[in-house]
Amino acid sequence: MQILSGVELAKSELEKLKNEIDSMNLPRKIRLGIVQVGDNPASNKYVQNKIKKAEYLGIEATLYKYDESISQDRLLKKMDSINDYSDGIIVQLPLPKHIPTQVIMDAIPYEKDIDGLSNRNEFALYNGSRTKDKFFVPATARAVLELMEHYNIKVEDKRVAVIGRSYLVGKPVAHIIKRMGASVATYDEHTGIKGVENADIVIVAAGEAKLVKEPNVKEGAIVIDVGTNLDDHLPDVISGDVDFESVKDKVAAITPVPGGVGPMTVVCLLKNLVDSIK
């Protein structure tokens, strides 16, 4: 069994990106705006990781953090000035329930929507031949694709199961690899996962710890586990959506959790940021 680690790849890609930025000889630093509402501990950790890596690249990362009680209208007004100053903008999710996520995403100019979650970006991604708009592949989806490319995992004429249909991962990954020649089947909580055991490649982004077990994968399958699930009783333990111990002796290759797709996600987000100014 091959372990598809993303740790060293992320380090290498971060250095390449740093060299690319240095070679651009820009008149000022690239500006990243990060919008966060509330004080969720997990969100705080993710945001600080993004800021740390951005600053390593010489990017000016500004955190715009607001109280959870902020109104939708007030946040939209704040977004106007953030849009004017920043080259790329991300909104740390989740937002409070009283603020519709899509409304805020659509308030970001599409050319600065480096998370790729606005309706305009989504239309461009899925209807490329019908628009001249450039688009961004959401960072986690891009991380999956770049990890597969790095390990020379070919999808053409392969049966691929994608578990999870989120706009962040499942939907864009399924769309892109289908265009690359794969036979794609998608699954979610409504369909169940019966049939996944026939796939050559299984990509799991369901958000359910240890959902995929040994009977759900075929001998020699390649498994990409995107899940990061925290244990309520063991807060320092992170589990994937795949039961690693259950499948490890059956699959040909698998991403570890942590240390697989995760390390590449922030790097791909910053790649989107650099792409936004080209």
Automatic annotation (TrEMBL):
Residues 4-115 form the Tetrahydrofolate dehydrogenase/cyclohydrolase catalytic domain. GO terms for cellular component: cytosol. Pathway: One-carbon metabolism; tetrahydrofolate interconversion. Gene3D superfamilies: Leucine Dehydrogenase, chain A, domain 1, NAD(P)-binding Rossmann-like Domain. Pfam families: THF_DHG_CYH, THF_DHG_CYH_C. NADP(+) binds at G164, R165, S166, T228. Coiled coil: none annotated. GO terms for molecular function: methenyltetrahydrofolate cyclohydrolase activity; methylenetetrahydrofolate dehydrogenase (NADP+) activity. GO terms for biological process: L-histidine biosynthetic process; methionine biosynthetic process; purine nucleotide biosynthetic process; tetrahydrofolate interconversion. It catalyses: (6R)-5,10-methylene-5,6,7,8-tetrahydrofolate + NADP(+) = (6R)-5,10-methenyltetrahydrofolate + NADPH; (6R)-5,10-methenyltetrahydrofolate + H2O = (6R)-10-formyltetrahydrofolate + H(+). The keyword Coiled coil does not apply. Residues 138-277 form the Tetrahydrofolate dehydrogenase/cyclohydrolase NAD(P)-binding domain. Its EC number is 1.5.1.5, 3.5.4.9. Keywords: Amino-acid biosynthesis, Histidine biosynthesis, Hydrolase, Methionine biosynthesis, Multifunctional enzyme, NADP, One-carbon metabolism, Oxidoreductase, Purine biosynthesis. InterPro entries: Aminoacid_DH-like_N_sf, NAD(P)-bd_dom_sf, THF_DH/CycHdrlase, THF_DH/CycHdrlase_cat_dom, THF_DH/CycHdrlase_CS, THF_DH/CycHdrlase_NAD-bd_dom. Catalyzes the oxidation of 5,10-methylenetetrahydrofolate to 5,10-methenyltetrahydrofolate and then the hydrolysis of 5,10-methenyltetrahydrofolate to 10-formyltetrahydrofolate. Homodimer. PANTHER family: C-1-TETRAHYDROFOLATE SYNTHASE, CYTOPLASMIC (PTHR48099:SF5), C-1-TETRAHYDROFOLATE SYNTHASE, CYTOPLASMIC-RELATED (PTHR48099). Belongs to the tetrahydrofolate dehydrogenase/cyclohydrolase family. HAMAP family: THF_DHG_CYH (MF_01576). This is Bifunctional protein FolD. It comes from Mycoplasmopsis anatis 1340. The lineage of its organism: Bacteria, Bacillati, Mycoplasmatota, Mycoplasmoidales, Metamycoplasmataceae.
